């Protein structure tokens, strides 16, 4: 075998030398079609695409009736990004050999790339009854590509499912299935499909990974963890499978199990800042704060501008009671990511604790501007204002908040503010509105202003609503 390879290499080298020597001399080169194609392949392998195109053009000039040569030139043009010109050569190839399926399928790929999805799908429909299984699987994959471009994601998922049903070894289709499930929301269908696929191909790490993601979306954490485990058991270099398995274990509060995944990643893959932060977070949740801080410091060796590492360091220091240094760390995080609402609101809370009230006020308000359409930053700020007995400011803030958010939390908070500014009629009306929208959230009013537990009118309004909502006993 090695001797044959050596002979072939020698023959190819001699062929290349002969061609280049004749070309440099300006002599007319006459070679067999197969020899031209060998030279083209050689240049393409060397990433010498211009030279490859020059050779294929010469070959076509000498043999303008070869569909294979036109097809080969189209492929080279596609590699260089010249899709429109490539399509012209594919048309010429198809004229010479109208029955060639590969030419038609390449045309379909180009049309999808050029945004001609309707034409591509029409061609697929015509071609589908004419081709056999191995190519039929790829044809359904191309159909999925066209549907993806049209944003018809459920059709995309079904086309990929059919592609895999026809050929369980179509790796391109299997790899794209999870994206299709994510875009279409077909998580239950994805789980069922991958279960069947794994009955046929139990060592398919991608199928296990896709199954894990489907279970995760279905909130089936136990089976998601198992599927991700099998994904990296069947492929020990599957980095995303380790990472996602660790994240599932964190959701299950299994921080030691997550650490096991992260330790495997440290042993198998190049370390990066985010990995050390994830390890630190697990130690933090296990209340091993010194180990956590060590991991956060290690992360800076790999990325000294990693904002999330500074944030987690700050949170860890806060848990240790070191609020001043915690604030410094969060300041560093916010310096790197200036418009991060989480960092802004966290630093505001720390400033409040260490007595920097004006800075806290500025940051709480800044946080509302970063996510104005969500209630959380507004609620944090109004709680701060109520703690400072700034009831009028709190009422004004809730009026502003209501311009962006119309949810129960804002109604409850606005009701509290109105009640504390002696606008009790409107306050109780708003309270009833909030109770009708989401009655289970009424306890948040006592978190906003604990003294409301002693306000008879407030308690009566809540209890009346709750009693009215109960069915009478027969």
| CATH structural architecture of the domain at 371-474 | Alpha Horseshoe
Fill in the CATH topology of the domain at 371-474.
Answer: Serine Threonine Protein Phosphatase 5, Tetratricopeptide repeat
Measure the end-to-end span: 91 Å
What's the CATH first level of the domain at 371-474? Mainly Alpha
DSSP summary, beta strand count: 0
Q: Enumerate the spans where pLDDT stays under 50 for 5 or more consecutive residues.
A: 1-5
Shape: elongated
Structural class label: mainly alpha
From the alpha-carbon coordinates, what is the Rg to the nearest angstrom? 33 Å
- Number of helix segments? 27
What is the overall pLDDT average?
92
Helix content range of the residues, please? over 70%
Main sheet?
none
* Strand composition percent: under 5%
Order of helices and strands: HHHHHHHHHHHHHHHHHHHHHHHHHHH
Write a brief caption for the model:
Helix content is 77%, strand content 0%. It is an all-alpha fold.
Characterization of this structure:
By secondary structure, this protein is mainly α. Helix content is 77%, strand content 0%. It is built from 27 helices and no strands.
Task: Describe the secondary structure blueprint for this structure.
Blueprint: H1 2-25, H2 33-45, H3 49-62, H4 67-79, H5 83-96, H6 101-113, H7 117-127, H8 133-149, H9 153-166, H10 171-184, H11 187-200, H12 205-217, H13 221-234, H14 239-251, H15 255-268, H16 273-285, H17 289-302, H18 307-319, H19 323-336, H20 341-353, H21 357-370, H22 375-387, H23 391-401, H24 408-420, H25 424-437, H26 444-448, H27 456-468
Helix pairs in contact: 2-3, 3-4, 4-5, 5-6, 6-7, 6-8, 7-8, 8-9, 9-10, 10-12, 11-12, 12-13, 13-14, 14-15, 15-16, 16-17, 16-18, 17-18, 18-19, 19-20, 20-21, 21-22, 22-23, 22-24, 23-24, 24-25, 25-27
């Amino acid at each position: 075998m090695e001797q044959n390879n050596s002979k072939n290499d020698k023959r190819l080298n001699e062929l290349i030398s002969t061609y280049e020597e004749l070309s440099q001399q300006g002599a007319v080169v006459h070679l067999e079609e197969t020899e031209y194609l060998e030279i083209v392949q050689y240049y393409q392998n060397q990433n010498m695409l211009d030279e490859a195109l020059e050779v294929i053009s010469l070959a076509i000039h000498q043999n303008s009736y070869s569909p294979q040569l036109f097809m080969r030139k189209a492929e080279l043009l596609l590699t260089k990004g010249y899709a429109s010109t490539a399509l012209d050569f594919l048309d010429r190839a198809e004229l010479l050999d109208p029955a060639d399926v590969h030419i038609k399928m390449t045309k379909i790929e180009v049309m999808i790339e050029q945004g001609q999805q309707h034409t591509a799908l029409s061609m697929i429909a015509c071609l589908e009854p004419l081709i056999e299984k191995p190519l039929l699987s790829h044809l359904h994959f191309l159909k999925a590509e066209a549907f993806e471009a049209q944003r018809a994601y459920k059709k995309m998922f079904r086309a990929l499912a059919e592609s895999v049903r026809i050929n369980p070894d179509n790796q391109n289709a299997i790899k794209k299935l999870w994206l299709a499930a994510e875009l279409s929301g077909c998580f239950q269908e994805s789980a069922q499909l991958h279960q069947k696929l794994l009955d046929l191909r139990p060592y398919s790490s991608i199928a296990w990974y896709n199954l894990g993601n489907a279970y995760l979306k279905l909130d089936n954490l136990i089976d998601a963890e198992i599927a991700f485990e099998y994904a990296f058991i069947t492929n020990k270099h599957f980095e995303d499978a380790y990472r996602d398995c660790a994240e599932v274990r964190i959701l299950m509060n299994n921080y030691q199990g997550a650490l096991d995944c992260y330790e495997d990643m440290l042993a198998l893959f190049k370390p990066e800042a985010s990995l050390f932060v994830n390890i630190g977070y697990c130690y933090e949740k296990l209340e091993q704060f010194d180990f956590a801080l060590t991991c956060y410091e290690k992360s800076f060796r790999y990325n000294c501008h990693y904002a999330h590492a500074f944030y987690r360091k700050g949170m860890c220091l806060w848990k240790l009671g070191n609020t001043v240094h915690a604030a410094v760390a969060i300041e560093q995080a916010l310096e790197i990511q200036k418009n991060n609402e989480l960092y802004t609101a966290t630093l505001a809370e720390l400033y409040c604790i260490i007595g920097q009230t004006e800075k806290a006020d500025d940051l709480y308000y800044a946080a509302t501007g970063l996510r104005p359409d969500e209630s959380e930053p507004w609620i944090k700020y109004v709680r701060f204002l109520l703690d400072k007995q700034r009831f009028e400011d709190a009422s004004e803030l809730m009026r502003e908040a209501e311009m962006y958010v119309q949810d129960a939390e804002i109604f409850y908070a606005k009701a509290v503010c109105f009640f504390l500014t002696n606008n009790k009629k409107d306050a109780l009306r708003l309270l009833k509105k909030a109770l009708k929208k989401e009655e289970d959230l009424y306890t948040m009013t006592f978190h906003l202003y604990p003294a409301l537990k002693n306000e008879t009118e407030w308690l009566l309004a809540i209890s009346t609503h709750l009693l009215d909502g109960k069915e009478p006993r027969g």
